Amino acid sequence: MMASVTGTGESVSAASLRRLPSYRQYLKVLQGMGREVVSCSHIGQALKLNPTQVRKDLAVTGIVGRPKVGYETEALIEAIESFLGWNNLNQAFLVGVGSMGTALLGYDQFNHYGLKIVAAFDNNPSLIGQKIHGHEVLSLDKLTDLAARMHVLVGILTVPAQAAQSVANLMIFGGIRAIWNFAPAPIEVPEGMVVQTEDLFSGFAVLSSRLAEVMGIRRKAGVNADANRR
Amino acid sequence: MMASVTGTGESVSAASLRRLPSYRQYLKVLQGMGREVVSCSHIGQALKLNPTQVRKDLAVTGIVGRPKVGYETEALIEAIESFLGWNNLNQAFLVGVGSMGTALLGYDQFNHYGLKIVAAFDNNPSLIGQKIHGHEVLSLDKLTDLAARMHVLVGILTVPAQAAQSVANLMIFGGIRAIWNFAPAPIEVPEGMVVQTEDLFSGFAVLSSRLAEVMGIRRKAGVNADANRR
DNA sequence: TAGATTGTTAATCGATTAACAATC
DNA sequence: TAGATTGTTAATCGATTAACAATC
Q1: What band does B49 get if pLDDT is binned at 50, 70 and 90?
Q2: The predicted structure's pLDDT at residue B5
Q3: Which chain B residues contact residue A47 at CB under 8 A?
Q4: Dihedral (C-alpha) B146, B147, B152, B154: value to the nearest 10 degrees?
Q5: What is the spatial distance between Cα B219 and Cα A166, in angstroms, rounded to a whole number?
Q6: Beta partners for A122?
Q7: Distances from the Cα of B181 to the Cα of A65, A114, B228, angstroms
Q8: How many Å apart are CA A196 and CA B208, to the nearest integer?
């Protein structure tokens, strides 16, 4: 089979991409246990996924397995990391040193995910100049210039919703190409840029709804105990 | 049309549930601007979603709109919150006062999401007894008993992967019915319990992959560098 | 070898989007 | 009224799962 480059056209589905980190996580556990090869059915069983789905997901990384045997654990981990670009470090700026920003600054495993937070920014004077988890907090108006000079590609946005777009604009002007957005607001960026918006509460909505279901306390709006025709 | 209670059978898709918080968020903004009614096309435009999809999502809450007019902003917000159970407070325990746990303890808006963290737990002696964002940290071995006595229904799991299952078991024994799991590990729970596992890095994997794409540095494993045009 | 597992194509399933009648 | 918008059914799209030949 010919070498295939994942070019502009054939984009991998977000659903597959989102599962790759959990494969990697589990493979690391297996690796720590000294397991040298692993099959899709084994992975699927541990992660409660269909083995065919696992196989297709892994295939996007370009890994080739051996029939009857499976995949080499080591090679598989490397294929995932290489596919995601996690084996070489991207510099990142973080803006907004609130609770979420502080948590991310304190996370010391980012280097295993190809990410190095090289500076933190805020516009709160009482934070500027302070060191948070070893990162000095800089003034927001240094962001654009510094991003451009350091060729920073990744911006982490942990500001309140109202500030999201204006800070994103600063990042864009500074040449940042990908924004990891934790603000609960959609942001506009030019064509060709990457935005990944995380909403903590989207997952919580699923939990809330399922809990209401199992507790049997779910009623639709406006529905009274008896009949609600109209 | 008959009144319909969303009972055990007809479960709403997770995809729809995950979008409800962003509708709510945007509706709050509109409400703050004094807007009294809103149409699906308006919401869809702001959030970049198909209007029919918005309509279907909102329909799960039981809200009824008026043709040619739309939905009452106020009523729509309430319908979403009521559907998700966010209008009455659930008590929650948080276990694992690391960076993520601390961030969540510091988030003061949970009461708008129907959640009140009433206690924090850790097994680190240097943390026990301390106050973190106003929450005293208790010893882990008090969890099960206290959960049962206080009838706590929600557990927030912010511990390392290795500890996830054993702490989850403590929660289960204490009668907790829903676990919001931030540990990068799948956990096993009995039938009828709710688990919502969040993986911060699943979103980051999407970002990483898209960034590698737009930067043109994506190669599949085993593919050599040469024929990588465009 | 026989059987387990891969890689891949086909079938199924579910979610999204389009179409359209009802309606204020 | 005319036209915009809802509610709902039908069509489309994409992701998941099943089937199966190739293979070590």
Answers
A1: very high
A2: 41
A3: 186
A4: 130
A5: 34
A6: A139
A7: 32, 24, 41
A8: 9
B190 touches chain A (CB under 8 A): no
Query: What residues does A134 pair with on adjacent strands?
Result: none
Q: What is the distance between the alpha carbons of residues A90 and B43, in angstroms, rounded to a whole number?
A: 36
Mean pLDDT of A121-126: 97
Asked if pLDDT for residue A3 goes beyond 90, the answer is no
Residue B9 has pLDDT above 80, yes or no: no
Mean pLDDT confidence for B103-111: 93
- In this structure, the strands spanning B135-139 and B131-132 are antiparallel
Q: Which of B98, B100, B220 lies nearest to residue A61, judging by beta carbons?
A: B220
Q: How far is the CA of A143 from the C1' of C16 (A)?
A: 40
Q: Are B159 and B143 in contact (CB under 8 A)?
A: no
Q: From the C1' of C2, which residue's alpha carbon is nearest?
A: A68
Q: Containing H/E element for B178?
A: strand B178-181
CATH domain B90-201 topology: Rossmann fold (3.40.50)
pLDDT score for A11: 83
pLDDT tens digits, one per residue of A191-222: 999 999 999 999 999 999 999 989 987 755 44
Residue extent(s) of CATH 3.40.50.720 domains in chain A: 90-202
Q: pTM of whole model > 0.85?
A: yes
Nearest CA in chain B to A187: B47
The answer, yes or no, to whether residue B227 has pLDDT greater than 90, is no
DSSP string covering A104-147: HHT-TTGGGGTEEEEEEEES-TTTTT-EETTEEEEEGGGHHHHH
Distance, in Å, from the CA atom of A22 to the CA atom of B162, rounded to the nearest integer, reads: 14
Q: Share the mean pLDDT of chain B.
A: 90
User: Cβ contacts of residue B137 below 8 Å, gap of 6+?
Assistant: B97, B120, B121, B122, B127, B128, B129, B130, B131
Superfamily of domain A90-202: NAD(P)-binding Rossmann-like Domain (3.40.50.720)
The answer to whether A206 contacts chain B (CB < 8 Å) is yes
Reported as a single tens digit per residue, the pLDDT across A15-57 is 999 999 999 999 999 999 999 999 999 999 999 999 999 999 9
SS3 A9: coil
- Per-residue pLDDT, A203: 97
Sort residue A121 into left (φ over 0), alpha (ψ -120 to 50) or beta.
beta
Within the 10-69 window of chain A, which residues sit less than 8 Å (CB to CB) from chain B? Answer: 11-12, 14, 17-22, 25, 29, 46-48, 61-64
Please tell me the class of the A14-82 domain: mainly alpha
Is pLDDT larger for residue B229 or for residue A173?
A173
The CATH number that domain B15-84 falls under is 1.10.10.10
